[in-house]
Amino acid sequence: MSIFLTKDSKVIVQGMTGSEGTKHTTRMLASGTNIVGGVNPRKAGQSVRFPAFDGQDTEVPVFGTVADAVKETGANVSVIFVPPKFTKDAVLEAIDAAVPLVVVITEGVPVHDTAAFFAHAAAAGTRIIGPNCPGIITPGESNAGIIPADIAGPGRIGLVSKSGTLTYQMMYELRDFGFSTAIGIGGDPIIGTTHIDALQAFQDDPDTDAIVMIGEIGGDAEERAAAFVKENVTKPVVGYVAGFTAPEGKTMGHAGAIVSGSSGTAAAKQEALEAVGVRVGKTPTETANLMREIMQNLTK
């Protein structure tokens, strides 16, 4: 099994005909994702041919609106590759078309725009992943976003991470065990799906045996996740917090990764996680080794 994304997911790509959309649609198709359409009002009625990976090119139709795409294809996932200034409208359009899962890859979306579409999504019951995220992959089944599909195969580890590159590294480090689902939730101050959302989903997934949670400095998301683990998660969890060497007041890559005084420090997050039994590695490799030890014990 998996969380949020399966082999049966029907995916559309908003911004498919742009350079990034085209590149990553090609990669998603190559990894087995069932992409049923793209959306571009200026190219409605056309189709895009993507190169063969199984001996036959794929023709993907382009629709003028998300509503048209959903009506014609039954799409239930949208991946968004549009510039920041158009992202809010793109997300709102997907929500209004009743798409259950919207993956927002775009970086640099204004926070007030994210707040607006997040509130709209919450009212409509739409799950948002992102913005400023690598997306979600269920290895061997579907890949919605930019996560390289050949890093690791299917397995029984669940991964939730604020960082794209650390998502990739952790998948590579634990490729010998594989993953049920890996989800990059993004590092902006406001995001849709949180650590807690993913932890709950992995807890409920019978084919996920253990969970890796990657956080970073800034905010209190990891502390809140620790409290959630204590009350709700019975599966083993290991963690990593990026930013132990970050100087106070320094923004580190993600807009949400900024420390003010003692709030949001890596040390404080580590302390909160370890207090509820989450083992925290000092480096990504050490964290992977902690999970490797857990998985080896589970298979004995």
Automatic annotation (TrEMBL):
Q: Domain named CoA-binding: which ranges?
A: 4-109
Q: Which pathway or pathways does this protein act in?
A: Carbohydrate metabolism; tricarboxylic acid cycle; succinate from succinyl-CoA (ligase route): step 1/1
Family annotation (Gene3D superfamilies)? NAD(P)-binding Rossmann-like Domain (3.40.50.720), Succinyl-CoA synthetase domains (3.40.50.261)
Q: What class of enzyme is it?
A: ligase
Give me the residues that bind CoA, please.
Answer: T17, G18, S19, E20, K43, I105, T106, E107
Q: Which domain of life is it from?
A: Bacteria
The subunit structure is: Heterotetramer of two alpha and two beta subunits.
Q: What is this protein called?
A: Succinate--CoA ligase [ADP-forming] subunit alpha
Q: Which organism is it from?
A: Kribbella turkmenica
- Gene name on record? sucD
